[in-house]
Specification:
TIM Barrel; 37% helix; 8 helices; seven-stranded parallel sheet; alpha/beta
Amino acid sequence: MKLFADYHTHTVFSDGLGTVRENAASAAARGLSEVAITDHGPRNIVTGMKGLDKLNIMLEEVARVNRLDLGVKVLAGLEASVVSSSGELELSRRAIKQLDLLVAGLHPYFLPRQLKDLWHFVLPNHLGRVRRSSGAKLKNTNTKALTEAVRRYPVDIVSHPNFMMPVELQELAPVCAERNSSLEINTGHVYNKDMIVLAAQKAGAKLVINSDAHTPQRVGDLASGLALVERLKFPLQRVVNLRLE
């Protein structure tokens, strides 16, 4: 039994500290056969890549590193933010078609597409951290936004669900199962991941264990995620980056 891929890593193209080559070399050193470069999109405030023109440069860099044959396949992806309460992603359909992998998730700091979402989607999530009374309504808004994104786009992975922006996992997981999108067990952040595993187990959804590495040294740091799914007796054949040997 072996985790063979890390499908969520960041580089200097957004808020990571390493290059594509450094992430790939680290993945190879850990014995992985695949690694994805999934930098933040341009509407993610501070952490996002500086304009979609950077996407073409990143795609060229991924292709160049693959030609070096470092012993690991490098996939070109993006971690796209949901930028409206109706489930729009920050990427065009054309940009998505250029990717090997689409990761999508909720992030608190982003530029919304419409002003109304600033008042009904962005600010409530920031206020919700200090005002518990807004919890149920806020969770409903977030859940609708994320589930609609999964329905509308070819999302391969939902990144760190229920981290920073709360969602109803019992509603999200069946949609992921229906659309063949994997819920992520993110080893890079500390939060309650048991609920993700249990919701996926009940809904028949898939899981993927990723590092969300922002430095090359953390690429492939996945052991805690594997320990979690084993502890909760999740069907291991539904962990997409786990090879059963």
